[in-house]
Structure to design on (470 residues):
């Protein structure tokens, strides 16, 4: 009897212990779960209350957002009999994939004045550790950020930068003029997507008035990355280049808007360098200061289509071969483009004295409106410098097609100035229909120098200067 009682007592203790352990585990887990949910909810609710971001200390999930996998699975306790306030929940596996990290939770203020660079860095550091996670820049906020590098050699693949809000450039001299290569950099990533309706505001009207040593610092630069997607965002008023890809592979840019006003210097829209497999489509590129898209050495398999461009300098390959350098570009396909008020529409420009080649280039179905010189090859490019010495070597140009270039021009319809020593070969002109813009005088006729190839009607105006292949 006594021993039975003892047994019962021990059993009771055991049950109580187990039950309370279960309750604790369950409570802890539930708490974690609840906190996570709360974090997300409060992120959203802060989002709704503009300018009232608060409780960042409660939201800091860089350390506790994700339960360590070691905690799971806990020993399954025997379900306590009777109703429990803690309904037995099937423990969800820790979410270590596709998690969201909001910059507000890392202390970003988003008031356009406070420097949020550190918060962005911390958010990135957390997101970077989890494959396919998303760093969120929420809408209705303006974040003063940069210069900043979202660097990835140790990051997990397929990260998403959800840009819904506005990111504004800092106004201090250490930003763009200190030899930094960019304002916002994404580097060495495997799978990076920038998406959202956000605005990247470079405040160029401030920077354009400051003399800078460098003339090609991009606002947003991708370096050494694979599988890059940029979609939805607007990049505007960049101090210099808007968007640059250097040493990247498999890049897709679509549905973006780039804009800067007419008096902005050297503000290329999209600058490509040493990159392969780039597609740019369904985008609006208005960069009065320079090229809509500029394709530099080391680029291959570039496909640009359904883009509207202007004002600006047009879509250009080059300038290549500066200071005797070697340049290699091939497989460039540009089609279905609207060009309005640009300097050129389809252009290849090389400096004298370079080497290398440009081949397999096709510009087709380009609608031009009041474009100065729609079709241009310039192997004497000198970028406004007064004395570029004559040199015999040149980047070699071959297999270049201009087809379906239609609309109005204001200076000269076709200008093909090839190198004295290495003529352009296999130039194909087809379906060219270019009319002078009404009321424009002092127009030049088509010009060719050392350009060889063929012409397929209709051609308007008549072009007689292109020589047949030798
Ligand atoms: C932020 O939260 C603290 C308590 O955590 C509260 O005292 C303070 O009033 C809150 N501030 C705002 C702006 O909501
Ligand atoms: C978040 O937590 C981490 C680690 O506990 C800490 O280093 C960091 O400063 C915290 N950030 C904020 C914004 O509180
Ligand atoms: C960001 O914007 C997209 C729509 O463009 C929306 O689906 C998403 O919920 C937004 N995310 C946040 C965190 O606001
Ligand atoms: C890029 O994406 C493709 C298709 O999604 C995938 O097969 C490839 O492994 C990715 N490349 C890298 C370097 O992640
Ligand atoms: C070009 O303009 C025409 C109308 O002139 C329009 O139908 C077409 O969608 C435009 N294409 C692009 C890429 O903007
Ligand atoms: C280069 O050659 C052109 C044509 O032969 C000539 O008119 C020009 O003066 C030369 N320029 C220089 C800097 O030698």
């Amino acid at each position: 009897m006594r021993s039975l009682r003892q047994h019962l007592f021990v059993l009771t203790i055991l049950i109580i212990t187990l039950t309370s352990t279960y309750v604790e585990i369950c409570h802890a887990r539930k708490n974690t779960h609840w906190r996570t949910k709360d974090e997300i909810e409060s992120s959203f609710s802060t989002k709704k209350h503009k300018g009232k971001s608060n409780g960042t200390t409660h939201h800091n999930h860089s350390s506790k957002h994700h339960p360590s996998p070691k905690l799971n699975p806990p020993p399954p306790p025997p379900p306590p009999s009777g109703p429990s306030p803690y309904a037995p929940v099937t423990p969800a596996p820790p979410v270590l994939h596709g998690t969201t990290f909001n910059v507000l939770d890392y202390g970003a203020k988003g008031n356009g004045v406070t420097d949020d660079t550190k918060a962005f860095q911390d958010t990135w550091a957390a997101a970077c550790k989890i494959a396919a996670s998303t760093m969120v820049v929420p809408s209705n906020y303006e974040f003063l950020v940069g210069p900043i590098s979202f660097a990835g050699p140790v990051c997990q693949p397929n990260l998403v930068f959800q840009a819904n809000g506005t990111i504004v450039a800092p106004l201090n001299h250490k930003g763009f003029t200190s030899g930094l290569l960019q304002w916002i950099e994404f580097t060495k990533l495997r799978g990076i997507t920038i998406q959202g309706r956000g605005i990247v505001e470079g405040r160029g009207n401030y920077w354009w008035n400051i003399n800078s040593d460098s003339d090609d610092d991009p606002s947003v630069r991708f370096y050494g990355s694979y599988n890059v997607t940029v979609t939805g965002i607007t990049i505007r008023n960049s101090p210099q280049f808007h968007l640059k890809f250097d040493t990247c592979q498999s890049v897709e840019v679509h549905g973006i808007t780039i804009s800067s006003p007419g008096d902005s210097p050297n503000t290329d829209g999209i600058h490509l360098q040493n990159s392969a497999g780039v597609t740019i489509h369904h985008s609006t590129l208005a960069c009065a200061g320079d090229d809509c898209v500029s394709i530099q050495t080391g680029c291959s398999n570039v496909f640009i289509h359904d883009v509207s461009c202007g004002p600006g300098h047009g879509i250009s390959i080059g300038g290549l071969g500066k200071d005797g350098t070697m340049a290699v570009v091939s497989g460039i396909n540009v089609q279905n483009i609207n060009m309005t008020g640009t300097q050129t529409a389809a252009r290849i420009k090389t400096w004298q004295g370079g080497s290398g080649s440009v081949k397999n280039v096709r510009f087709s179905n380009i609608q031009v409106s009041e474009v100065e010189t729609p079709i241009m090859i310039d192997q004497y490019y000198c970028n406004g410098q007064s004395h570029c010495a004559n040199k015999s070597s040149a980047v070699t140009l071959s297999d270049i097609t201009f087809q379906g270039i239609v609309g109005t021009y204001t200076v000269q319809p076709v200008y093909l100035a090839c190198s004295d020593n290495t003529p352009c070969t296999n130039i194909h002109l087809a379906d060219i229909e270019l009319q002078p813009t009404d009321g424009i005088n002092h127009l030049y006729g088509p010009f060719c120098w050392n350009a060889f190839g063929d012409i397929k009607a209709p051609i308007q105006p008549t072009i007689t200067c292109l020589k047949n292949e030798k």
